[in-house]
Amino acid sequence: MTHSPDPRHDRATPPRDIRGWLFDLDGVITPTATVHMHAWARLFTPYLEQHGAAPYTEADYFAHIDGKPRYDGVRSLLASRGIRIDEGDVTDAPDFETVHGLGNRKNAAFNETLAEEGVAAYPASVAFLDAVQAAGCHVAVVSSSKNAPAVLAAAGLADRFEVVVDGGYAAAEGLPGKPSPETFERAAELLGLPTTACAVVEDAESGVQAGAAGDFGLVVGVDRGVGRAVLERLGADVVVDELDELIPLLGAGGRETNEGSDA
Description:
Layout: E1 20-23, H1 32-50, H2 58-65, H3 70-80, H4 99-117, H5 123-134, E2 138-142, H6 148-154, E3 163-165, H7 167-173, H8 182-191, E4 198-202, H9 205-213, E5 218-222, H10 228-234, E6 238-240, H11 247-250, H12 253-259
Parallel strand pairs: 1-2, 1-4, 2-3, 4-5, 5-6
């Protein structure tokens, strides 16, 4: 490692004093971001070609889709190409040319790939999860994906998180998706902690923006391809390549803080 994971901002709470860790799932805990990327490419590569629009690229995924709720990703990508189609309804079949139809087409591709390939969590992320839970910290998953429970089960992590705020939960509660901070704020509330005692852990641009927009103690960016400079510019206090880089910064403070907490 050629850099220090120490927080860049004076306002940031040191990792050892964080009592709740709010993890994005895809790209942070599990490498399902790759599955999502392939599914989006399978959707938009032929679709944009059929409409005579600029070709779909990996940069489109990071700029317009990554971290957002599925239908918001469809809207954002189409808007980048000046394509307007009907919204449709969440029950639209995958072959419907509507925002919801395209989103459902992508979801079908994702589930097929997940079933074929399975998913294993990042070892460094599991090591960090082990460390923060051993220190007595509370943990939650905050994901835009409605597939989060299936992914956690496939990775063998379904029993590791006290709270899961996913796309299905957000839709049922009327919570706006990332880059709004509200899903992270709800997760902190469900953990019984103030946001200032919690850290947001994200790899997506919209997720880091969500963390920076809220009153969280720490925003951690995991660089899976967005780029360190971009994550820092969007508000990450710490940027790492792998989460186990933060383990030495936990110290004993987390254990002492939580043993004295009724949360």
